[in-house]
TrEMBL record:
It comes from the Bacteria. The keyword Transport does not apply. SUPFAM superfamilies: Nucleotide-diphospho-sugar transferases (SSF53448). This is Glycosyltransferase family 2 protein. Belongs to the glycosyltransferase 2 family.
């Protein structure tokens, strides 16, 4: 028996009203030969979708365990809930986390498992990079800090043949092993939507886990976040609502993240959030992120 068949793997996904994308992702995962060879369970958190996602998944892939959310879990809450549920169902060696808007490359699972097997050591978190299906440019993956005590970072282009270290990662494609979960836990309850993956990878890095960008690319996923401020054409009331909204600037959660990991940047982060809100013309004019 190979390592891949003896390990028990939990696949974790959360979704909300993206039926076609969710099905497309599952198609790209389940139809892979390397995935069929895994001893795996698939867990999907459907956050009370109204577009028939759960029914469509159940019809096409009855082997998927579907858990219904409250409708207010958002991304981080959904992933945390499904992760907790999977842990309650059994002992897993590996956890594979995916965004449901990813379309995996045909050999993604095979290459991801090869990369992990080559590590031959527990305490590893692999980040899989994705390409934009429109531009074919890097869209999500791993990031490195410019300075260890500062929040600024830059995106890492994956090496073609070897895994490279990173401090931050987008959880569009994650491989997390059991030792990492025992040491770090799962996504923090402090985050509702954004930042849970950055907090997790940074906490893992600080906790002695090898956080690595796996070599090459593993799927396609469009970066649909857009700009991270609300234009001055909107009223002040709407901009303040956006400041506090967990799908906007997530004011409280972002400042918690900064205070936890980069306390020297706290005042600057606080000031920048309010400048974006009160004087968005600066960003509107210069298109700063």
């Amino acid at each position: 028996m190979t390592k891949n068949t003896t390990r028990k793997v939990a696949v974790l996904i959360t979704c909300f009203n993206r039926k076609d994308k969710t099905i497309n992702f599952l198609d790209s995962l389940i139809n892979q030969q390397a995935f069929a060879e895994l001893n795996s369970d698939i867990y999907l958190l459907d956050d009370a979708s109204t577009d028939g996602t759960a029914q469509a998944v159940k019809y096409k892939y009855p082997q998927v365990s579907i858990i219904t959310g409250t409708g207010h879990l958002f991304w981080a809450g959904g992933m945390r809930t499904i992760w907790q549920y999977a842990i309650s169902k059994g002992e897993y060696t590996l956890f594979l986390l995916f965004n449901d808007d990813v379309v995996l490359m045909d050999d993604a699972i095979e290459r991801l498992m090869i990369c992990y097997n080559q590590r031959n050591a527990e305490g590893t978190l692999l980040v899989g990079s994705t390409l934009s299906p429109i531009t074919n440019e890097l869209s999500y993956g791993g990031h490195a800090l410019y300075k260890p005590d500062r929040a600024a970072y830059y995106m890492l282009k994956p090496d073609k043949v070897k895994a490279i270290p990173c401090q931050l990662g987008n959880a569009n494609i994650f491989l997390v092993d059991a030792l990492t979960v025992r040491r770090i836990g799962i996504f923090s309850a402090a985050f509702t939507h954004y930042l849970a993956d950055f907090d997790y990878t940074l906490s893992a890095h600080k906790g002695g886990i090898d956080v690595l960008v796996a070599p090459g690319y593993y799927g396609y996923c469009e970066d649909d976040h857009g700009v991270n401020w609300l234009s001055g054409k909107y009223s002040l009331k709407k901009r303040i609502n956006y400041l506090y909204n967990v799908k906007g600037l997530a004011y409280k959660e972002y400042l918690y993240y900064i205070k936890k990991h980069f306390p020297a940047d706290y005042f600057g982060a606080f000031t920048k959030l309010w400048l974006k809100t009160l004087f968005p013309v600066i960003w509107d004019k210069f298109k700063k992120q």
